[in-house]
Amino acid sequence: MNTFMVIKSYGRKAAKANLLAQKRICELEDFISVTKAESDVCRVNESLGNEIVLHDETFFVLDFALKTADESSGVFNPLLYPVIREWGFTTGEYRVPAKPEIERLMGFTDYRKVKLNPEKKSVALEKNMMIDLGAVGKGYAGDCALQVLRQNGIKSAVLDLGGNVQVLGKKTDGSLWKIGVKSPWGEGTAAGLEVEDMAVISSGGYERFFEKDGKRYIHIFDGRTGFPAENELAAVTVVCKTGLLGDSLSTTLFVMGLEEACAFWRNRRDFDMILLTNDRRIFYTEPLSERISLLYPFEAVSVVE
Ligand code: ADP
Ligand code: MG
User: Fold this and answer.
1) Residue 210 CA to ligand 1 centre (angstroms)
2) Of all atoms in ligand 1, which is nearest to the CA of residue 34?
3) Do β-strands 198-204 and 215-218 pair in parallel, antiparallel, or remain unpaired?
4) C-alpha–C-alpha distance, residues 288 and 179, integer Å
5) What is the pTM of this model?
6) Does the C-beta of 121 come closer than 6 Å to ligand 1?
7) Is the shortest distance between the CB of 230 and ligand 1 below 6 Å?
8) What is the DSSP letter of 4?
9) Closest ligand 1 atom, residue 139 Cα
């Protein structure tokens, strides 16, 4: 997944369980990578409108991603790949495409046109459409890895998949895990969170970007426009029960920006979040009050209720 991975498990069977969890993550990557030839995602993207049968896991993640697109009115959009590719974010050959070019490619990103068949676990796109599960893959892989650990008798573990942290149970001494929320300003840890059985998933513009003529272009796009997200947010961290939900929401909320993200949370309340702004303010949802410790001299602290 083009990133690092750390698995720490505790117990007699930890070494074997870790190996199996690692294997499971690599297997999923073989299904959902957008660059690995023969992955489910690549087969779909080369299908020229033909129906493609997927592995169960790929179908499940694609179905979830399409539902997230629906729930966010296209802010989250797993069909953006034709556009993201044009900006060079898969090849590393970065460029700023002309606006008419982006508008033309946006014509191939309507997620409502994807046809899923739940019985056959198949998908059919229209010609020129492509999928990309990059915004949810790591979270789902984390869920599957924790499941493997659980099945192998592990009761206490922490997993870090490229900055997506997921914990199983509590620490072996019975205390809560203390997870650091990375500072997007390159100054260590912005906040600490005490959690058990939880996913702590972050998205931010500081992770991957390129600069052209003094302007920064990041790897998270507004699914409605095809342009990199640009608002007052520097980073979003979602705290919730599964990696899949956390990963989908961290990307979505980051694109939404401060106000829309807060409104979205007030409607749902099935997750918690920490929003860090470019002008160094922090916003966090009320249920986190007992779990959070602030480790950075923020300009302002606000609790979202
Ligand atoms: P990361 O994987 O870097 O931690 P994210 O989970 O936010 O960050 O996922 C970013 C990836 O998701 C991008 O590299 C791109 O492949 C894809 N992506 C970018 N913008 C969107 C969007 N609006 N909706 C869905 N996927 C997106
Ligand atoms: Mg994400």
Assistant:
1) 15
2) 16
3) unpaired
4) 13
5) 0.96
6) no
7) no
8) -
9) 6
Does the beta carbon of 202 lie inside 6 Å of ligand 1? no
User: What average pLDDT does the structure give for the chain?
Assistant: 96
pLDDT for 195-220, tens place per residue? 999 999 999 987 788 989 999 999 99
Tokens 């930890």 belong to residue: 14
Residue 222: CA count within 13 A, CB half-sphere: 12
Task: For the chain, list the strands marked E by DSSP.
Answer: 5-10, 52-53, 115-117, 122-124, 156-161, 164-168, 177-182, 189-195, 198-204, 209-212, 215-218, 233-240, 272-277, 281-285, 292-294, 300-304
Question: Is pLDDT at 2 greater than 80 in this prediction?
Answer: no
End-to-end CA distance of the chain: 36
Q: Whose CA is nearest to atom 16 of ligand 1?
A: 134
The band of 296, judged by pLDDT with boundaries at 50, 70 and 90, is: very high
- Determine the residue of 251, 252, 255, 273 to mutate for testing ligand 1's pocket, defined as the one with the most ligand atoms within 8 A of the Cβ atom: 251
Answer for the pair 190, 282: CB distance below 8 angstroms, yes or no: yes
Category of 196 on φ-ψ map: left (φ > 0), alpha (ψ -120 to 50) or beta? beta
Question: 110 in ligand 1 pocket by Cβ < 6 Å?
Answer: no
Q: Which two tokens stand for residue 36?
A: 């690995």
pLDDT tens for residues 64-114?
999 999 999 999 999 999 999 999 998 889 999 999 999 999 999 999 999
Pocket test for ligand 1, best of 219, 225, 252, 273 (most atoms within 8 A of CB): 219
Please state the rounded mean pLDDT for residues 267-285. 98
pLDDT at 1: 64
**Quick check: CB of 165 below 6 Å from ligand 1?**
no
192 and 56 Cβ atoms separated by less than 8 Å: no
The residue contributing the CA closest to ligand 1 atom 6 is: 135
Q: What is the DSSP string of 188-234?
A: SEEEEEEESSEEEEEEETTSSEEEETTEEEES-B-TTTSSB--SSEE
